[in-house]
Design goal:
Elements lengths: L1 H21 L8 E12 L3 E4 L2 E5 L2 E11 L4 E8 L2 E7 L2 E17 L9 E18 L4 E3 L2 E13 L4 E10 L2 E6 L2 E7 L2 E11 L1
Length: about 200
């Protein structure tokens, strides 16, 4: 009788352990939110306005996003961040600043989706929309909004069934015209590389 109780207890314990481990797997129907910090580096610094070449400085800020898995291995994500204020410099010194607000819509692939693992990597591709605003370059100077491709690679490391540590890197194709009083006077091509980290909460 005691042996039966021991075996039963062992089976129940193993069942709970397997259920807990299974809960770590990414599965269809999962919804998540992310928040953290990001550093954006300018991969391509080709900015010209009115014949003057500008260097666009890198910047740090907060990032956030939300996503949904419609399959164990596939999902969608919408992410953004606070406006990144980039200082502009020329050979002569400071030349003003411009703020950039990125919004990204991505299709993600989770190679470990459906697998009981605390480590859940992912890669994604999609569309980037960048809004430039608060331009401090010169009177009447504006930077047009930009649409381009974006790619990302990331990793979630489960701490509990719902809370995960997140890290990612992304590359976006960002180029836009610069206008002065409605006339084209140059272009900005910055192609930011963003490295971020934070927390993912899965529902």
């Amino acid at each position: 009788m005691s042996q039966f109780k021991i075996v039963t207890a062992a089976v129940i314990t193993a069942g709970f352990a397997m259920a807990s481990q299974a809960a770590l797997a990414y599965t269809a129907g999962d919804v998540f939110v992310r928040g953290g910090v990001a550093k954006t580096d300018i991969a391509s610094d080709d900015t010209n306005a009115g014949g003057a070449d500008f260097d666009v400085e890198s910047e740090n800020g907060y990032s956030y996003g939300v996503g949904y898995l419609f399959h164990d291995k596939f999902g969608i994500e919408l992410n953004s961040g606070e406006g990144f204020e980039h200082d502009l410099k020329t050979a002569a010194g400071d030349a003003g600043s411009v703020e950039r607000l990125p919004v990204n819509a991505l299709f993600n692939y989770y190679p470990m989706g459906g697998v009981d693992s605390r480590i859940q990597p992912y890669v994604g591709v999609g569309l980037n929309y960048t809004n430039f605003y608060s331009e401090d370059i010169g009177p009447g100077v504006k930077v047009d909004d930009s649409f381009g491709a974006i790619g990302q690679a990331g990793l979630d490391l489960a701490v509990t069934n719902n809370i995960m540590l997140n890290g990612y890197v992304s590359y976006a194709d960002v180029d836009a015209d610069i206008t002065s009083n409605g006339n084209n006077v140059g272009a900005v091509d910055i192609d930011p590389v963003t490295v971020g980290g934070g927390v993912t909460y899965r529902f």
